């Protein structure tokens, strides 16, 4: 799956608003090119109240998020809020226990479902360059994350 295919798939789910960070929308330069997927069917949730159910990250965030080695040519990371139950099903332990397990993962592995290198404890999973092994699973996880986001949605006045 390419970044564009992910954006088309997730952005095509009902009520999804996609924001790709850029200078034009005031995003910090380190985030330019990263995409954020929000459930916001009426496009009325204030920016400071929006929380993505998935993201695509294209670069390292120096000093904060470098474990995926996104400085490699053509490498990007799909991040998905899978929730506690799905996280435990995927990895065999609850997100709260990730600190005890984190050394058992290669966060730079391509086409492999892994805990998010920074947000695993919040129930996030990641896939670098979803491909033949993980493409269908990525679509399923995105659909499930979208469903959870939709279920939590409250219209904003």
Précis, in short:
The protein has helices at 3-11, 83-91, 98-101, 135-152, and strands at 16-20, 35-39, 54-57, 77-81, 113-115, 124-128.
Protein model, in words:
The chain is of the alpha+beta class and 157 residues long. It has a single domain, classed as Aspartate Aminotransferase, domain 1. It contains four helices and six strands, in the order H-E-E-E-E-H-H-E-E-H. The protein has helices spanning 3-11, 83-91, 98-101, 135-152; strands at 16-20, 35-39, 54-57, 77-81, 113-115, 124-128. It has a six-stranded antiparallel β-sheet with strand order 1-2-3-4-6-5. The protein is globular and about 40 Å long. The model has no long low-confidence stretch (mean pLDDT 95).
Can you give keywords for this protein?
17% strand, alpha+beta, 4 helices, 6 strands, Aspartate Aminotransferase, domain 1, 157 residues, six-stranded antiparallel sheet, single chain
| First-to-last CA distance | 37 Å
The average pLDDT value, as a whole number, equals 95
What's the CATH architecture? Alpha-Beta Complex
By CATH, the topology is Aspartate Aminotransferase, domain 1
Output the helix-strand order. HEEEEHHEEH
Strand content: 15-25%
The total strand number stands at: 6
Task: Provide the spatial order of strands within the biggest beta sheet.
Answer: 1-2-3-4-6-5
CATH hierarchy, class: Alpha Beta
* Count of distinct structural domains: 1
Uncertain runs are: none
Q: Rg, please?
A: 15 Å
Major sheet details: 6 strands, antiparallel
Number of helices: 4
Structural class: alpha+beta
Approximate helicity band: 25-40%
